[in-house]
Amino acid sequence: MASLLAKAIVIAGMLLFGTCTVVFQKMIFSIEGEGLNGDVHSFEKPWFQTEMMFIGMFGCLFVFEGKHLIQKFFGKKAEEGHETKPGQSHFKTYLIVAIPACCDLCATALSNVGLLWIPASIWQMLRGSMTIFSAIFTK
Length: 139
Fold this sequence. Notes:
By secondary structure, this protein is mainly alpha-helical. It has a domain at 46-138. The protein is built from four helices and two strands, in the order αββααα. It comes from Entamoeba histolytica KU27.
């Protein structure tokens, strides 16, 4: 069981990095650059940020697969709490992760589009309320 200090550090980190992410996204949307014709354009490309998130998520597959190969090669058992069920294929594990990842990718794309037109503070309040309503509806 994690100590109280470790839990406090994790919570503070989530708040800090979550806030920084939104502020940096909004800053990226406000960057302007000169085009080929000399016109100034703002960098309003939410799909680019979504693509960067997708590349980051895809990079985690290499870590997961590398860990799986090391465990298979050296014959180490999986960590406690992360065992695969008997008879569960490696492909099924990918499917179990892929479905929520696709939903997360769609949600990120839509939220990045929404962040273009509303202030970051309102966006964060809406995102926080989504967590609260999800917790209410799960019970």
